[in-house]
Amino acid sequence: EVQLVESGGGLVQPGGSLRLSCVASGFDFNIHNMNWVRQAPGKGLEWISYISRNSDIIYYADSVKGRFTISRDNAKNSVFLQLNSLRAEDTAVYYCAREPQTIAVAVDYWGQGTLVTVSS
Amino acid sequence: QSALTQPASVSGSPGQSITISCAGSSRDVGSYNLVSWYQQYPGKAPTLTIYEGTKRPSGVSSRFSGSRSGNTAFLTISGLQAEDEADYYCCSYAGTSPWVFGGGTKLTVL
């Protein structure tokens, strides 16, 4: 069974940092590109970052560029998102999302999400 | 990176057909046949409903179909059922900032 399990969310003050982790199981993690997508409370989905299977291609949404860093460790079946200089508007549920091997720009499996709350 | 434009809400009666639009531009929807659609129930993660504009993943009902005209993509649900009541999001490839989502549409089954 394919599973994506996020962790690392929590309450942080504006300007603070968090590191989100996503551990994958039930599939060959090495052959899948991965994404982070977030959803603010009561709002829509927002794509924020993409990392290719061997980390040679990385993209960020303009809203997080320069503040967030995506990385992955294929040996540990994990993808990470380092969140720095956090703002109130970064408050959201952050989802780890798998791109299918043969389909571009789609997500076939999502994690359950981890909530990040930025507040003083 | 501008979000794709979806109607905030649509509604229909059981058995009817509804269509949700997803308006983009020549930089995204109009240039790439890489639109995906997601269904999301409250408090749950989204699920893939349509990919590459018109294709259905295995397990998704044939009542769901996708299409495109110019810079706008469409999701049509035929034979509307109560279980279809959910939020729906489109997503498109957008070039240099590669993924962009629509704002979402709340479907109400009357």
Topology summary:
The complex is a heterodimer of chains A (120) and B (110).
Chain A: E1 3-7, E2 10-12, E3 18-25, E4 34-39, E5 45-51, E6 58-60, E7 68-73, E8 78-83, E9 92-98, E10 109-110, E11 114-118
Parallel strand pairs in A: 2-11
Antiparallel strand pairs in A: 1-3, 3-8, 4-5, 4-9, 5-6, 7-8, 9-10, 9-11
Chain B: E1 9-12, E2 18-23, E3 35-40, E4 47-50, E5 64-69, E6 72-77, E7 86-93, E8 99-101, E9 105-109
Parallel strand pairs in B: 1-9
Antiparallel strand pairs in B: 2-6, 3-4, 3-7, 5-6, 7-8, 7-9
Describe the structure.
The complex is a heterodimer of chains A (120) and B (110). With 120 residues, chain A is an all-beta fold. In chain A, the strands form 2 sheets. In chain A, strands 2, 4, 5, 6, 9, 10 and 11 form a 7-stranded mixed β-sheet that branches. A 4-stranded antiparallel β-sheet of chain A has the order 1-3-8-7, with no helix packed on it. In chain A, β4 and β5 form a beta hairpin. The mean pLDDT of chain A is 96. Chain B is an all-beta fold. The mean pLDDT of chain B is 94.
Supply database-style keywords.
heterodimer, A: 120 residues, mainly beta, 7-stranded mixed beta sheet, 4-stranded antiparallel beta sheet, 0% helix, B: 110 residues, 3-stranded antiparallel beta sheet, 9 strands, globular
What would a concise description of this structure say?
The complex is a heterodimer of chains A (120) and B (110). By secondary structure, chain A is an all-beta fold.
